[in-house]
Amino acid sequence: MRECRKKTGVMLRLLLLLTVLFTAMDIQPVQAAVKLDRTAASLCVGDSFKLKLTGTSKKPKWKSNAPKVVRVTSNGTVKALKAGNATVTATLNKKNYNCKVYVNRTFKLDKTSISIKKNGSVTAYLSVNGAVNASIADKKICSVTFGKWEGDYMPLTIVPKKVGSTTIKFTNSANNESCTLKVKVKALPVTATFQTPVISSGADTLVVGENTMNFAFQLDRKANSVVFRVYDANGAIVRELPLGQVAARRKITFSWDGRDDSGMPLTGSYRYGVVADGNRTMGGDISVLGASPFGKGDGSESNPFCVSNLAELYLIRDYNGAHFVQDADIDFNYSVLAALFDDEQPFTGTFDGKYENVSHQMSNLFGYNSVFGTIGTEGTVKNVSLSNCVLNTAGSLFAMTNNGTIESCSVNGNILCNGGNQAAMLVMYNKGQIRSCNVSGKLTVNATGVVSPSALKVGGVALNNAGTIVECTSSVEIAQQMQIGTYIPTCSYEIYSGGIVAENAANGFVTQCTFTGTINAQVILPDILKDTPGIEAGKIYSGYAAGSNLGYISRCMNASAGRDLPAQGTGTGMVQ
Q1: Cβ-contact 203, 299 below 8 angstroms
Q2: Cα 537 from chain centroid?
C-alpha cells in the first residue's frame, strides 16, 4: 500500500513539472527574422538615406564594396558620391545582409547656354535634389533666383539686366560637383502697338472701291526700316507698304484700299502686321469684300447698301445691322415668300425706301407672310411703300412684330382672313414706335360655323399696341363677320374693330391719328334662332381709334362716314 502511494506521488510531481515547462515555453516571444529594410536603392549624386537591420537589437558592421561611389557610416547612413554601382553590406553574427545601390544621375543643367532678350526672363532647370550655390561672373548682366525642388528638378529663373554675356556656375555643396550656364542678353527688339483699324465710311467691312481701311500704330523704339504688310490665310504677303524710318512712340497713320501690290481687289479674310528692323509684330484679322454685294454701297450710314431687286432685298438678311436704301422699284410678282426676319433674328439695321429724294415702291406681294417679319429694338424701317398687296391669311402685310421704329411708311392692299380671326394692315404687334404711316385697302375677317367662345380682332394700323402710334392715317375698309353655328348661351362671341388698333394695351399710346375708312362688323345667329326673343347674338366693340382701350388715346380724329363711331369700343383707358 505504501509503495503504491509512493508511486502515485511521483507521477503527480512529474505531471506538475511538465505543465510548468510547457507553460514557460508558450509565453516566450517568437524571434523575428533578421533582414535589411531594403535590398536595393537608386540614388542621385549627393543623395543619402539610412539603412536599418531589423529583427535584432544588435549593431551590425557596415561596409561598401565601392566606397568612392557609395559611402556608408557606422550607423548605416548611405551617401551617393558619384555615378556607379555599389553593394552595401551589414554583417552580424558572421552573416551578411546586402543592399545594391545604383547611382545613375549626376548634378547637371538641362542646357549649357541660353539667350535672352532684354525684356524677358527665361527658366532653366537643375537636376538632382541637393544644396546648390550659384556664382555669377558679371552680376550686371543678369540675376538668378531658385525655385523649389520638384522631385529631382529645381527651376532657375534668369532675369536680364543689360546687354552682354556672362556665366553662372552652380555648385552642389553635397559633393562639390559643378556645372556652368552661359548667358547672353540681347538687345530688345522693336515692337509695334496697333489701334483697331477703322473703315473710312464707318462701315463694318472694307469694300474695294467703296471705302478704305485706316490703320494706326506706334513703335516702342526707333526703327530705321519699317514696312506695313497684309498677309493672306497662308501667310503670303499680298500688300506691302514701305514706311521708312519711324521714331519711337510716334503715331503713324495710313489707309489701305483693299487691293494687292498689283492693284487687284482682294476678297476674304486677311491679317496685317508691321516689320521694324527685321522684327515683326502681327496685328489682328480683317475682312475685305472685292465688290459691294449689292452692287453699290458698303452698308455704312453715309454709304448704305443699295437694294435694287427682290434678290438683293432678301440678301439684307446676311448683312443684318447695316444701313440699306431702296434705289429701284421692287416687284414681288405675286410670289409667295418668307418673311425677311423673325423673333430669333430680328432686323437691327436701317432700311430706307427713299433714295436721292425718290420714293420707290414694293408691289404685288401675295402670300401668307409679312415682308419684314420682326423688327428689333435697334431696327428702323422708313419711307417704304407697299402697294397692291394681298394677304390670304391671318396676319399683316408690313411686319408681324415691331420693337423698333416704323416711320413714314404706307401700305395699300387686301387682307382676306377666313381663319385665324385676327389681322391688321401694317403690323400685328407693336411694342416700339409707328410714326406718320398710312394704311388703306380692304381688311376682311370671316369666321363661320362658330360653336365655341370666339373673338374676331381687326386693327387698321396694328392689331395690338403696347408702344406708340403717332400721326398715322387709316383709310381701311374693315369688314368682320362671325357666323355662329350652334348657339351656346354660356359662350362668348365678340368682335373688336379699331380704325387704328384693335386693342390698345395698358401701356399703349395712340395720338394724333385719323381714321377715314369704314367699319362693318356683325355677328350672325343660325337661321333657326334669328327671331328668338331674348337671345343675344354677340358683342361688337368698334371704335375709330381702338376696339378695346386700356391705355391712352389722345387727339385722334374720326373723319369716316360713321360719324357716330366712338373713339373706343370698350375699355377703361383714357381718351382725350
Answers
A1: yes
A2: 57
The set of residues, in sequence order, having a beta carbon less than 8 Å from that of 10 and lying 6+ positions away, is: none
- Using CB atoms within 10 Å of the CB of residue 71, give its burial: 0 to 12 exposed, 13 to 18 middle, 19+ buried: middle
The pLDDT score that the predictor gives to residue 129 is 64
Contact 33, 94 (CB under 8 A): no
Evaluate the CA torsion angle 337, 341, 347, 349 in order and state its sign: negative
Contacts of 336 (CB under 8 A, 6+ apart): 366, 367, 368
User: Grid coordinates 507521477 are at which residue?
Assistant: 11
Of 37-51, 311-325, 455-469, minimum mean pLDDT range: 37-51
All three cell numbers of 445, joined, read 375677317
Could you tell me where the DSSP H helices lie in 425-498?
Answer: none
- The C-alpha angle 257, 260, 261, rounded to 5 degrees, equals 115
What mean pLDDT, rounded, does the chain reach?
Answer: 89
Distances (CA, A) of 247 to 188, 217, 219: 16, 12, 7
Q: DSSP secondary-structure letter at 131?
A: -
Sign of CA pseudo-dihedral 199, 202, 208, 210: negative
Residue with cell 529631382: 152
SS3 labels along 61-85: EEEECCCCCEEECCCCEEEECCCEE
Mean pLDDT of the region 509-534: 87
pTM beyond 0.90: no
Mean pLDDT check: name the lowest of 22-26, 29-33, 300-304, 562-566.
22-26
Higher pLDDT, 48 or 348: 348
* Torsion angle of C-alpha atoms 223, 226, 228, 232, degrees rounded to 10: -100
- Residues linked to residue 50 through DSSP beta bridges, in sequence order: 77
Q: Contact, 360 vs 328, CB < 8 A? A: yes
Are 46 and 128 within 8 A, CB to CB?
Answer: yes
Mean pLDDT, rounded, for 530-540: 76
- Contact criterion met (CB below 8 Å) for 484 and 493: yes
Give all strands (DSSP E) within 234-363, no chain letters. 237-246, 252-256, 268-276, 279-289, 305-307, 323-326, 330-331, 350-352, 354-355, 358-359, 361-363
Residues 6+ apart with CB under 8 A from 429: 400, 401, 402, 462, 463, 464, 466
Burial of 205 (0-12, 13-18, 19+ CB in 10 A): buried
